[in-house]
Amino acid sequence: MKPFSIVIPDQKDITQDQEFFILEENGITKEIKIHDYDKIFSVPGLYEELLMNKLQCNSPRVMKNVVEFISKNYFIPITEMSVLEIGAGNGLVGEKLRQLDFSHYSRTRYFSNCL
């Protein structure tokens, strides 16, 4: 059993930066914006539960499929390919690429205060 629960309320007519979810943890309920990564990453397992399970994010699987497609259709061995992931944070894309024995992978995290 997870030490927290997540509820995503119905949200209409709001912008992406206004989207939020309700986190209940240890009897305390908090409203957290979906893109408030500092708060999300402060709770172990919350990012994966929110993005992968509740919101059904499939970006890691899509990236794995793109790399496989390029390798097969352009005859480039995966061992000769490189990927730079911009916006990485949790390593889920890297996990999928490792399933392909991919070894040339770099990542950087996006920081909004750098723009």
β-strand amount: 15-25%
Number of domains: 2
Spatial shape: elongated
Q: Kindly state the percentage of residues in helix.
A: 25-40%
Distance between the termini: 40 Å
What keywords describe this structure?
three-stranded antiparallel sheet, 21% strand, two-stranded parallel ribbon, 5 strands, alpha+beta, 2 domains, 115 residues, 4 helices
Tell me about this structure.
By secondary structure, the chain is of the alpha+beta class. The chain has two domains: 51 residues, no CATH class; 56 residues, no CATH class. The chain contains four helices and five strands; from the N terminus they run E-E-E-H-H-H-E-H-E. Strands 1-2-3 form a three-stranded antiparallel sheet, with helices on one face. Helix 3 runs parallel beside helix 4. The longest helix has 15 residues. The radius of gyration is 17 Å and the shape is elongated.
SSE layout and pairing:
Blueprint: E1 4-7, E2 20-25, E3 28-33, H1 37-41, H2 46-54, H3 59-73, E4 83-86, H4 92-98, E5 105-108
Parallel strand pairs: 4-5
Antiparallel strand pairs: 1-2, 2-3
Helix pairs in contact: 3-4
Give a short synopsis of this structure.
By secondary structure, the chain is of the alpha+beta class. The chain has helices at 37-41, 46-54, 59-73, 92-98, and strands spanning 4-7, 20-25, 28-33, 83-86, 105-108. It folds into 2 domains: 4-54, no CATH class; 59-114, no CATH class.
